[in-house]
Write a structure and sequence with these properties.
Layout (H helix, E strand, L loop, with lengths): L6 E5 L4 H12 L4 E5 L4 H11 L6 E6 L3 E6 L1 H15 L2
């Protein structure tokens, strides 16, 4: 079973990879929150710098124990979820 840790996504409305990332999390039934950065380039720039990530979506995994962990973008999220599925199944 995949960890049910919540995720947080920084996205732009017109970004197809952002939409796919949300769809993927929904398909797995994983909780997530979203921050739209369409009209806040300053916030987007700050987040990109903080996580050293250049594109959207910026996908973060949230954990009370481990804090915030950068997953990456859509492709990284897909790989992350696939790896977690493989590890949890026998």
């Amino acid at each position: 079973m995949i960890s049910s840790r919540p995720y947080h996504l920084y996205i732009k409305r017109a970004c197809p990879f952002c939409q796919e990332a949300m769809k993927l999390l929904e398909e797995y039934g994983l909780p997530y929150t979203v921050t739209m950065v369409d009209k806040n380039e300053e916030l987007l720039s700050e987040v990109k710098g903080k996580y050293n990530w250049k594109t959207v979506p910026i996908v973060l995994e949230l954990s009370q124990v481990h804090g915030v962990r950068l997953i990456g973008g859509y492709t990284d999220l897909k790989e992350h979820l696939g790896e977690n599925v493989g590890k949890d199944r026998v």
